Each structure stands twice: as structure tokens, then as C-alpha cells.
Amino acid sequence: TRIRPSSKRCAVIGGSGFLGRHLVEKLLGKGYTVSVFDIRQSYELPGVTFHQGDLCDKQALLTALQGVSLVFHCASPAPASDDKALFQRVNIQGTHTVLQACTEAGVQKVVLTSSASVVFEGTDIKDGREDLPYAKKPIDYYTETKIEQEKLVLKACDKEKGLLTVAIRPHGIFGPRDPQLVPILVDTARRGNMKFIIGDGSNLVDFTFVDNVVHGLILSAESLRPESPICGKAYHITNDEPVRF
Ligand code: NAD
User: Fold this and answer.
1) Which residue out of 32, 134, 142, 235 is catalytically annotated?
2) Exposed site from 6, 10, 38, 68, fewest CB < 10 Å?
3) What domains can you pick out in the chain, each with its CATH number?
């Protein structure tokens, strides 16, 4: 038997991660019913159903997506890895599988967490707009596969078929329980390795507070309707001004 999708029933793929968990907590507060799909379970929370599985496994996804109308995709291998095959398998093939499973399960909206690095060519960008072209020489495998992932998700937007998609592009995310950005900076500084400046000290970098990224993800999900101009588009998300680094 198939459960009828309810607009307040959503799934967070990668919901055990740093961003995913913040998103799950905010969604619960807004009255959503939330399922988490992740290869690991990192916490327990009343009202959240956990489905442990690999997003490359369509059957596992189909079980988790029963009755779900809205999917947030925020799973990825850690950017620091240099395992090209893993990035390709999870970010490209896996995203393809996620989109197939969403279509089969009758999901109506998919919101992807992409990355601002998809337009980064190695030189500073200030006031960069979304119409910047994708990087021709992505800085690493992570970014290379995030570009392909974003293209797949945006291309899947099809009003006739009833699947609407949008992508949000944050750069560095910080906030409570951040496992990477701030801890790595602090650790590097403690070990005395922050005495060097790469460039002339005026390189730009953008950090966004995790709640602002979550806000952007939920706003885009709630605005995603067939007549909405955001269908099939990507949006940068930031706090305000970039930081000199
Ligand atoms: P994270 O590592 O904390 O969370 C990612 C989650 O994905 C983890 O819980 C992991 O178990 C899960 N996952 C990985 N492979 C999977 C698979 N095959 N099947 C199912 N689940 C899998 O990372 P995060 O910082 O929360 O990042 C979330 C998203 O935001 C990612 O798409 C990332 O590319 C994007 N992003 C993050 C940042 C940042 O600064 N943290 C910046 C830009 C974009």
C-alpha cells in the first residue's frame, strides 16, 4: 500500500550530518514530520524516524521516501577526502539514484545543498551572481562532482512530471557542532601553523552561520511551486559581507 504524500512530510538525506541535523531540528520546530536517511545514525530525537542506508541503494531510499513529498539532499563524502571514485559514486551516481527514487515514490520537491565552490576558478569572487558559469577547472574532485550533482538535480526539474527542484550554494558553514571548519582552524593555530599567509592577506572567503543556511533551505522548499521562478535554479547563500582571510 502506498501512503499519500503529505506536504508536511519530509526526508533529510544526510540528516545525521552537521548541516542535516540543524535542518532536522528546525523542521521539527516548524511542524514537519521528518525522516532521516543516512549511512550512519549519530543521534536520537523524538519525532524523527531514522533509516540507515546508502543513498546509492534505490530500494533502501524507496522505503524511506514512502509518503514523503519533500526531500532535502544534504549528504556528501567529506570534502577533504581525495577518493575520486567515492565522490563519483555518491555525488553523481548516488544523486541520479536519489532522483529516480524520488520520481518513483511520488516526491514533489527536491532541495539540494550544493556549494559555492561550483563557480570558483581560483580567483576571488565578490558580489558573485548565480549566472556565473560553472568552474571549468574545479579545484578538487569534491567540487567537480558537486557541479555534476547540481546539474543533475536542476535538470530533473519537470513541472509536467510534478517534480520541482532547487539548489542552495553555501560556502563555509559554521555553528554549534561544526566538526570541520572551526575545529580545524583552531587546531592548526594551536600547532603554530597559522603564521603563514597564502597570498597577500586579502584573499576573500565566505562563511555562513548554519541557521542561515537552514533558513535558506526551508524558504526555498516552501517557495517551490510550479509557477515559482526559483524552479530548477541555484542560489548562493551568505550572511552578508565576505571575510578577508
Ligand atoms: P557532514 O559530513 O557533517 O554530513 C554529511 C552526511 O552525509 C553525513 O552524516 C554522512 O554520513 C552522510 N553520507 C555520506 N555519504 C552517504 C551515503 N553514501 N549515503 C547516505 N548518507 C551519506 O557534512 P555537512 O557539513 O553537514 O555537509 C552537508 C552538505 O552541505 C553536503 O552536501 C556538503 O557538500 C554541503 N556543503 C557543506 C559546507 C560546509 O562548510 N560544511 C559548505 C558547502 C556545502
Assistant:
1) 142
2) 6
3) 6-174+204-239 (3.40.50.720)
